[in-house]
Amino acid sequence: MALFSTIAVLGGSGHQGRGLAQRLTIAGERVIVGSRDPERARTAIAGWPAHARAEAAANRDAVARADLTILAVPFPGVAALLAETADQFTRDALVIDVTVPVTFVGGKMTMIAVAEGSAAQHVRAHLPSHVRVAGTFKTIPAHLLDDLERPLDCDEFVCGDSEAARVQTSALVQLLPGLRAVDVGALSRAESVEHLTALAIAINRRHKIHDARFRVVGLPSGY
Amino acid sequence: MALFSTIAVLGGSGHQGRGLAQRLTIAGERVIVGSRDPERARTAIAGWPAHARAEAAANRDAVARADLTILAVPFPGVAALLAETADQFTRDALVIDVTVPVTFVGGKMTMIAVAEGSAAQHVRAHLPSHVRVAGTFKTIPAHLLDDLERPLDCDEFVCGDSEAARVQTSALVQLLPGLRAVDVGALSRAESVEHLTALAIAINRRHKIHDARFRVVGLPSGY
Lengths: 223, 223
What we know:
The first copy, chain A, is an alpha/beta fold. In chain A, about 35% of the residues lie in helices and about 25% in strands.
């Protein structure tokens, strides 16, 4: 049985979201790829392997039909996207923020200062209070998710504004083989998780690799 | 052959430094434990196992005799300690900052805002320019270092203000069995590394464990 009735992946035909959208459909979830341009999204999806096929819809429609919405657009576009869609979220919908506030200026990576403290808290501030928010999939490289045959083999950090949001989000993470969800608590912990992404990017550049990611040592076996 | 002629561990009889001081002597390094109260440090060292014995000295003396100084005092004491010792550092001395700017208020952990961006940059700002600075041993739990029989089994992130400082620091890290040094670049990356420590503390509290630490996935084997 699918974990959610319908998952909207906003930005699901772009760099950040398409690997996630495909892997979730393969795991048995029903996925709608939300886009500003549903026709373009439909064309993109048509090129995906048959076992990873999803539907396409306009962002507002995708949100209105979903009990889980994943925000997989570049961080600078989040506020405008939520302004456009905020009134469409169903009661008790869960929003998962996967964005990271980093920018590349002249080839040098820096973190964008976020007034709310982190991208996840920025998302929280732009949504009505009846919507629940969690953050995860922040430290896994997008292109690794996108390479459907490759094992993921790492931990994903989950933070959220309620225990229930974190439990649901952790279950979603663990739908993808090779991922272990590590609950790190309140949504405000996203700031540290987003720094971890910055660190992974720094390690990639310094060591000329592409897939730096993390595992936590010291959790009980079977966790 | 020892990697350094003499290593001063300031705060080496305290919570943060004593495991490090002992493990470095076991690895063959000559260690001076610097203290405000060398008599007390001497008494502490006398209780260490024979194969982990170090010398004790006043902070200024320890620094003057060392080519490597490790700062293992609580973060809030760093500025005063460096004001007291700055004129004693030898030319081209290397300083390794292991401090993390976190505080516990009413049982809740929060990060201390550091004007310079990170603890490591704070240290840099309080030292003369002829002294080199690196940061590491920030994410390994102090009490794990202190339990000499336990394997460490994790990565340590190394940042520093020069390639040479990072190479020397990485070599030092790898003197301790079970540790792999991961060079993350410029000293300013310490901000992200220090967030990783905050994340480890959050994971410890949430999962009622004591030893959360990290490994990087995706580095070439043999790295």
